[in-house]
Amino acid sequence: MRTPQDLYQLLDTKAIHYQRFDHPAVFTCAEASTLAPIPGSLASKNLFLKAGKTGRYLLLCLPASARLDLKALGELLAIKNLGFASAERLLATLGLTPGAVSLLAVVNDSAGLVDVIIDEAVTQHDTVLCHPLVNTSTLAINTGDLLRFLDSSHHPARVMQLPCLPA
Questions:
Q1: What gap in Å lies between CA 26 and CA 33, rounded to an integer?
Q2: Angle at alpha carbon of residue 22, lines to 19 and 151, rounded to 5°
Q3: 20 to 30 A from 90, CA-CA: which of 103, 108, 111, 140?
Q4: Considering its fold, how many domains does the chain have in total?
Q5: Are 122 and 63 in contact (CB under 8 A)?
Q6: Dihedral through CA 111, CA 58, CA 74, CA 117, nearest 10?
Q7: C-alpha separations of 138 from 12, 20, 64, 65, 151 in Å
Q8: Which DSSP category does 41 fall into?
């Protein structure tokens, strides 16, 4: 599994520009919202889901304020028993602990088990905030650069309108 330092080196090699902000550990979007470093950037949340009994996983990115309708997403994607993956599966698959889930973690999915889905609302912002494999730092990354990074990491993002519950 790669470390945050490995990730920074990879981002630099791929000419993915970012601004880094170190901070105390955060475990929820509410905690992270007090640390949002870039005005106008999108604070997002990332969810790691188990795709039923398929052996595959979904890594979702949506605005931090959104509430995903898990049942509707399962129906939309035709996945039975879609649910949250355990902390053990998160660690084994992406090398992450809860609170540090990030799109950037696809660098640790060498088995190719993770599909990335990004809510289209995320792509309408110039900058997205992401954890660099730990929840004690946040990177502000241009949305286009983030999509390019995912493509180059063999995890092209499926951009779609995710079903969300009313606020």
A1: 9
A2: 45
A3: 140
A4: 1
A5: yes
A6: -130
A7: 16, 6, 14, 18, 21
A8: P
- Per-residue pLDDT tens, the chain, 167 aa: give them: 899 999 999 999 999 999 998 888 888 777 777 765 566 677 889 999 999 999 999 999 999 889 999 999 999 999 999 999 999 999 999 999 998 999 999 999 999 999 999 999 999 999 998 999 999 999 999 999 999 999 999 999 999 999 999 87
- Going by C-beta distance under 8 Å and a sequence separation of 6 or more, which residues neighbour residue 78? none
**Beta strands, E only, the chain:** 18-22, 44-51, 57-63, 67-68, 82-84, 114-119, 127-130, 137-142, 158-160, 164-165
CATH number of the domain that residue 146 is part of = 3.90.960.10
Structure tokens that stand for 139 in this block? 């990177």
What six digits make up the tokens of 79? Answer: 């996945």
Element (H, E) at 126: none
- Tokens 């509410």 locate to 30
Tokens standing for 141? Answer: 């990354």
Q: What is the token pair recorded at 86?
A: 């355990």
